[in-house]
Design a protein that fits this description.
Pfam families: PQQ_2. The radius of gyration is 25 Å and the shape is globular. The chain is built from three helices and 46 strands. Among the domains are: about 190 residues, no CATH class; about 170 residues, 7 Propeller (Methylamine Dehydrogenase, Chain H), CATH 2.130.10. A twelve-stranded antiparallel sheet has the order 2-3-4-5-6-7-8-9-10-11-12-13. A hairpin with a 5-residue loop joins strand 30 and strand 31. The two termini are about 20 Å apart. It is mostly beta strands.
Amino acid sequence: MVAATVAAATPAAGPVDSAGPVAGLLPARAVTEWRSDSALRGTWQVNQAVLPGEVGWSGLPMPVREQVSGPEAEQWLGVDAIGPVDNLQRTSLDFAVSEQEVRFVSAATNGGAVSFSPGLPVLDPVILSGERQRWSGRVRTNDEQPVVANALITAEPIGNSCTRTVAEIGDDSYSFDWCPGEGLSGWVSTIDSVGLGFEMETVEPPTVADPAGFDDVAATELRGTEVRPIRFFRTVAGQYREELVPMGSRAAWAGDQLVVADTGGRVTSWLPLDDADGTAAEDFSGHLAFWRTTPGGSVRGLATVGAVTVVGTTDRAVIAYDRDGRELWRRVMDEAVTSVLSWGELIVAADAGGTVVALAAGDGTQSWLADGIEEVLAVGGSNAGVVMVRRGTTVQALSTTTGDPLWSTRFDGDSTAVAVSGDTVGLRVGNWLVAHEARTGRRLWHDSIADGRFLYGIPAGLVVTGRRTTVLDAGGNTVWENSDRMIGADPLVPSANGSSSTADELVADGPGRLLVGGPGEFELAWDYPAQREPPELAPVRADRGVITLQREPTGYGWLEYR
């Protein structure tokens, strides 16, 4: 499945850039661990990372963000936790971080939220020296008015060079466990409205029933009649709270949800709110945050297989998540990941060192590994597929099953593009399109495509786009051309939805409009709303429309075309 992408612009998650007294107790990099919960008798998945100021602040839940006027901290420690398998509790904890201290700012769950202004000091030189620390400020619980409160904060060593900080506020208390290089290792609250607690003991990840989750939600038929702005929400304290617009660097559709990798290195899934149950308004499309994680570094690859999301990061990791955001598996590469592609139930990932590995999407089992590859150009095929790679001035076809070389061809260094459609591989070299049989490399036909700047593969054939768009079948015959109104559409891209009903849809950015067409498809067009620029990301085909990220005078916004 294709993931839309644009270059990242914001520093990604990373360690605290200081040698201050608290740095050693914070996570050195983004980390995901599983910790026990004796009260719920289950396991929490706990993901945490140190984030740049703007990234951490923008991820604060409402109404917390209302009382934190801007990125007040140089950095933030963000913790996202998912409760036991049979209890889909979602919890986020946010800490403001500086060289000298860590302050607890907020906790939010499905059922409750609490925030502190200023933040509660839970790590600083005074606390770490064993002295008591006193705090006075305002506490806000859920939507209630903030109240003045006082707190007593103490700390004690608890073994393995770890420290436990306890903050007592009246009859309530919070307990934080900190371990060198690990960050927050345990947290317990006595406030019922928050109701979270995980302990220091690390455990094995729980077994997830039906981890693959490969079934897509059938896409509805496009009508060409509606354009709705998308508004993003999060469930906090039992209510929908509007979130800031995510600035995506990559986006994809995973089964029944939109997955966005933002420019700060966080990955969030968004479930469309149901039009029929009264939760969505007629003038906008509502999307609800379902899970969030910080995989580490910057996201350089995003692919989906049904409801499974797979990301590749500059932190050398390829990580798969199930529909609920639980980590299914993780593969550490030798170098930063440069691309992640999917074909069927196979994931093909490449790193900057030239290693390419093929992994099962459901459990991460390695099928094969190849070295010395400069770029993965395409993956596809009808039955036994091929992985098209570049080694120097050679394009080579590898078996998707074994990784063994099947055939290769040289090119003269001119601009080259490769696409796979069924049993045909198309190579664009300069102004020529040369078609080969996918498994044998036998040359089938060639044609001049002087104006063909982009090359894609869809089930119906090879798509060549430029001043016009043409779809050529396995025999080189034209099976579809764009209409006059689609002239200048640049570029057309295959739909980012793997269901057969939309497999041959092409989505285009035309002059001032979004266009959809393709073999056997009627053609649709939507005018862009006033003052909207062309999409920043390639459009994503969702279950009920086409989703775009587009600039407007006040910033960026997401739109849904139906």
